[in-house]
Amino acid sequence: MLALLQRVRQARVEVAEQVIGQIGPGLLLLLCAERGDTAAQADKLLTKLLKLRVFNDDAGKMNRSVQDVGGGLLIVSQFTLAADTSGGNRPSFTQAAAPEEGRRLYDYFVAQARAAHPQVQTGQFAADMQVHLLNDGPVTIPLRIAPPAPLQ
Q1: Is the pTM of this model over 0.90?
Q2: Which residue from 5, 9, 57, 131 puts its CA 20 to 30 A from 120's CA?
Q3: Fold of the domain built from segment(s) 2-133
């Protein structure tokens, strides 16, 4: 699974000019399921996300997690993270999971996040969304949870 995490002061998602999800200070997560991704990878990504120390402590050092600071999570599906730009000027998205599988993994990730964290908002899968954010820092971190290596 691929994700792009952004520490934000605030963020919101709109669909058809209606706000469907918003948070104050916290993390905006753009999430992409790739072909062959599993629920186990989603679990590992969520664990990493909730414990990642990207918020400042009293000394100004990034030493606190979103859970430590009580921040919100805004989770937005974004298949374009799987873009392959190596073959010309038009990106290919063949590594992105098929829409049904992508939705299943996105919904699973959101459900697990809601079970583990008190403040979770979302975008709308496969919708034309406008994402507004005030990046804090800026702090932007790519995350990738690869499938386990095959047994030999």
Answers
A1: yes
A2: 57
A3: D-tyrosyl-trna(Tyr) Deacylase; Chain: A; (3.50.80)
